[in-house]
Amino acid sequence: MTSHSVGEHLSGFVAIVGRPNTGKSTLVNAMVGTKVAITSSKPQTTRRTLRGIVRRPGLELVLVDTPGVHRPRTLLGERLNDAVAEAVTDVDAIIVCLPADEGVGPGDRHILASLPRGVPVVAAVTKADLVPRRNQLAERLVEVDATANWTAIVPVSATSGFQVEELVQAVGEHMPPGPDFFPDGEASDAPLEVALAEIIREAALEDLRDEMPHSLAVVVEEVDDEGRAVIVRATVFVERESQKGIVIGKGGAQLRRVQGRARRAMVELLGRPARLDLHVKVAKDWQRDPKLLGRLGL
After folding, report:
1. DSSP state, 177?
2. Which terminus, N or C, of the chain has the lesser number of Cβ atoms within 10 Å?
3. 113: left (phi > 0), else alpha (psi -120 to 50), else beta?
4. ∠ CA 167-195-89 to the nearest 5 degrees?
5. Whole-angstrom distance, CA of residue 222 vs CA of residue 224
6. Strands 93-99 and 10-17
7. Of 83, 81, 111, nearest to 95 (Cα)?
8. Spatial separation of the C-alpha atoms in residues 196 and 179, rounded to whole Å
9. Chain centroid to CA 297: how far?
């Protein structure tokens, strides 16, 4: 444990890494105490290294939520893995998410082997609420303990709040003395356009299956404040004409559902009435096209 003076303010950056769908974004939201990252049951939902700010008396943690590390099949996949590698190079601690309802596998070991040396690494054994018996959780903790020389191992459930504070404290002990990096009351460093685009993408992901989630991107073209309401104009990009039909739905029904869902979340984020003008366009094979990835901010 790092020793600190009494009353010393601690602050630092913490990368959260893991395979796809291990609960990273849900954990970030639970630690911050508000929604800053979109969540979905679909793997590889996170595409940006988004930062969430955790504040406790005498402590600020800047959580860097990263995309899930996976075997890439597209240029986008390669860039997501590169973003994770970059995110862990200059942090004060790393949280590795390992789901309690799954065994430690080759993907987890690959991530652990790629982490920089000399940085405190905490195992967050996520989704602890999904393990029905206490002895099963104990067995998983023993298995996790044997995989690496952890600074700490904390079983946690982001959905129920189980041991979220214990995880914050376990990581906070390893932060250096320093001031707050962000103004009080700020929960994320994401620009408004990025936050709104992520809201729309999350709303669209809810009904999509198979490969569709990976083929969908959202760009917010314009945000207009018209006094009584905020007007958001955005475009959903897909890779093929057939996917465009799926996102729009029969008679535009699916797109209207997405608009309604996204607009409600926007009102919550903005604290004001909002209108959403949403269109769907085809950007052929954008996941493999460097120019299109650049245009989509990926």
Report:
1. B
2. N
3. alpha
4. 50
5. 6
6. parallel
7. 111
8. 29
9. 16
Summarised one tens digit per residue, pLDDT across range 91-115 is 899 999 999 999 999 889 888 888 8
CA 235 to chain centre: 22
Does the pTM surpass 0.90? The reply is no
CA pair distance 187, 53, nearest whole angstrom: 5
Which parts of 57-182 are beta strand (E)? Answer: 59-65, 93-99, 121-126, 152-155
Residues 98 and 107: beta-carbon distance below 8 Å: no
pLDDT digits 0-9 by tens, 135-169: 889 999 999 999 999 999 999 999 999 999 999 99
What is the C-alpha to C-alpha distance for residues 219 and 238, in angstroms, rounded to an integer? 11
Contacts of 140 (CB under 8 A, 6+ apart): 100, 103, 125, 131, 155
- Hey, how many other C-beta atoms are within 10 angstroms of the C-beta on 110? 13
